[in-house]
Amino acid sequence: MYARAARRRTNLVGGNSHTSELAMKEWLATHDGCQIRVTNFWYGPAHLYKLYIDGDWRDTNVDKFVSPNSPALSVRVTPAHHGPFLVEVYVKARVTVKAKICVDGKQIGGDVF
To answer: Total domain count for the chain?
Structure first.
């Protein structure tokens, strides 16, 4: 079962201006006891994607444009209790931001696209 994305908005400046808001979206998944967390922050045209494994920040992408056909984030994980695995995150940003979390080429969480 895929974890649904959460969305939060924080007003940085005050008032109702759309450009004064920092927005965040988050996706969660678990593989072999490891928690995988992907966050996307945006403020106006700026985007920041981050990948966390068990709370540790492991990869970042600040590219303005990302391709949904190649991983925007990736990391090889070697947990103490299991063999190594590759986490890849694909991002599709059109009107809304979608993220697909894959482990060793198989989708385990996020959005379907």
So the answer is: 1
